[in-house]
TrEMBL record:
SUPFAM superfamilies: 4Fe-4S ferredoxins (SSF54862). GO terms for molecular function: 3 iron, 4 sulfur cluster binding; metal ion binding. InterPro entries: Fe-S_cluster_ET. Gene3D superfamilies: 3.30.70.20. The keyword Zinc-finger does not apply. Keywords: 3Fe-4S, Electron transport, Iron, Iron-sulfur, Metal-binding, Transport. It comes from Mycolicibacterium sphagni. This is Ferredoxin. Its cofactor is [3Fe-4S] cluster.
Amino acid sequence: MSDNMRIRLDRTVCDGFGVCAKHAPKHFSLDDWGYASLIGDGTVDEADRGDVLRALFDCPVHAIIEITGDEFNGATRSEPTTDETPVFEAHWGFAQ
Ligand code: SF4
């Protein structure tokens, strides 16, 4: 299994600021109204990691989320059953 960073984009919160496409145009495209779509399946090559992280940190509405585990393969988010950290929680401070 690859150790590449993986991301998803929550288009329900995207507010069309366009910052992501500016920082990482290989991974984000904008529609005619400026709302973002993910290009590809969310896998980020190591060479693009810095650009994508900058997009992630600069997105004003935190619509870009680093994902881990089975969520990337289509699994749905599950509620934690114990006091352990949720498996699919973003790694970054603003989501914790
Ligand atoms: S930076 Fe965030 S809000 Fe702006 S277009 Fe990209 S995902 Fe949407």
